[in-house]
TrEMBL record, chain A:
GO terms for cellular component: plasma membrane. It is a multi-pass membrane protein. The keyword Iron-sulfur does not apply. Gene3D superfamilies: MetI-like (1.10.3720.10). Belongs to the binding-protein-dependent transport system permease family. NCBIfam families: Opp1C. It comes from the Bacteria. It is found in: Cell membrane. Residues 73-262 form the ABC transmembrane type-1 domain. This is Peptide ABC transporter permease. It holds the Pfam family OppC_N. PANTHER family: D,D-DIPEPTIDE TRANSPORT SYSTEM PERMEASE PROTEIN DDPC-RELATED (PTHR43386:SF1), OLIGOPEPTIDE TRANSPORT SYSTEM PERMEASE PROTEIN APPC (PTHR43386).
From TrEMBL, chain B:
One of its GO terms (molecular function) is ATP hydrolysis activity. Residues 2-244 form the ABC transporter domain. Belongs to the ABC transporter superfamily. SUPFAM superfamilies: P-loop containing nucleoside triphosphate hydrolases. GO terms for biological process: transmembrane transport. The keyword Transport applies. It comes from Oceanobacillus sojae. SMART domains: AAA (SM00382). This is ABC transporter ATP-binding protein. Keywords: ATP-binding, Nucleotide-binding, Transport. CDD domains: ABC_NikE_OppD_transporters.
Amino acid sequence: MGTLNKLIQNRFAMICIIFLVTVVLTGFFAPWLAPHNPVDVNVKEKLAGISTTYPMGTDQLGRCILSRLLYGIRTTVLIAFITMAATIIIGTLIGGIAGLFRGKIDEIIMRICDIFMSFPSEVMILAIIGMMGPGITNIIIASIIAKWAWYTRMIRSIVIKYTDKNYIQFARVSGFSRWHIFRKHIMPNATGEIAVLATLDIGSVILMISALSFLGLGVQAPTPEWGMMLSEAKNVMIIHPGLMLPPGIAILFVVAAFNFLGDSLQDAYNVKHRKRWR
Amino acid sequence: MLEMKNVYKSYPKKGTGFRKEKLSVLADLSFQINTGEWVALLGESGSGKSTLGRLILGLEEADRGSLLLEGRNATAWRKENRGQMSVVFQDYTSSVNPAFRIKDIINEPLKVSCRNNCIRETTKSLMGKVGLPLSLLNRYPHELSGGQLQRICIARAIRTNPRFLVLDEAVSSLDISIQTQILDLLHQLKEEMDITCLFIAHNLQTVTYLCDHVIFLNERKIAEQIETKKLADVQSDYAKRLLASAVQFNGLDEELRI
């Protein structure tokens, strides 16, 4: 409750939360909110300006930009959430095992992580997508493969930090199993720190997905996605630069909101601990 | 109760690359503690006191030697007697889970050795035993003072009526007035309960108040083991030095008081 109270007291964090919740809800209710079908092509209305029929105008194929932006939330944010959730689960499981068991198991896991972390993540993602082909599922798989090692290492260090605490040592002396210690003592305390990691990183996942779609390696046409909207807009950048603004600004605001929220969460979490043992 | 024979313990040195150099912490340690005895382990910082405690608690493995509890291999004994060995650490702030309420902290050890129906029966008497009001049970650790927290740690440690208790500098980090209260509490527990105890300390006065035997640990080895009431007859140079420094300190203390 302490962390939550601190977060509620932070006005900027609350603005970020309200903004992100609104974005997610807008994406969820996109079929009801969008004025047009996002994939309907209407060449007669191509590159139309702002009007009551098309509140943000149309693109070079005459598709409603607002509708594509709203439906794009589903693709962009959903992929980011799935990627982050899967990476966190894998990182928590493997990092938890490494941190709890230590010894040879820890050594083997950490050396595998070293191998994965020795490649730049962008290069690894491009290589994986190059082998598997473009597509939503492949982006998610590639992102997880590129990120799991870093998360495993971070979560391992969090677990080790807690296993050195005396209450964990007491539980070990009392005869509790490692699973009980992980479930009852480590996870409830580590969840806050893992949430900070995830919130700070989800912005970069959104950027990465958008960048891959921009390069034509991610989400494929005609599925609306912010990175791909940018990619399509770049073809008419000279004659109609305004087309790049809606997806660009949307990415900017969502990524910034996640980053600010992550920072606020980190502050709230740290303050709580400083205050507890003052 | 406890018998240690020729125990060696070392830790790998950091930064030695592929060479497996080790730093010896305990060498050829042999001693025994009889049932119901309170034995003090005295020594300087870095003499291996806490490592010895961790070996007994099963938090570390010895390199060589044997550790027997009631005549049985210590690992097997611990598995068969869960909750029968307990510990109170020096640092009470990290000894309790900050996310747990006090009642959950105290009752946690019961989950390995007792069914839930005995929880309500003794929490009340246990809080009375350690001199704390029942109103603290629903509080969180950060709402308690250092002395109260250390009492909670002691209450948790004796929750399952353990047969063996390790007090790892349990009073060292408390201020003098609280130290006295905790020592009185421990003395009372010694009288009331049938517990064997290893009391790790570096203060001779607390040791003479509580313990039946004293083991002097110096440079990885046992310098001397002696009954507390025969402390004046120590033979080893280290024990003599330690006693002399304590006497000097007491003398200074007396002068200041005058």
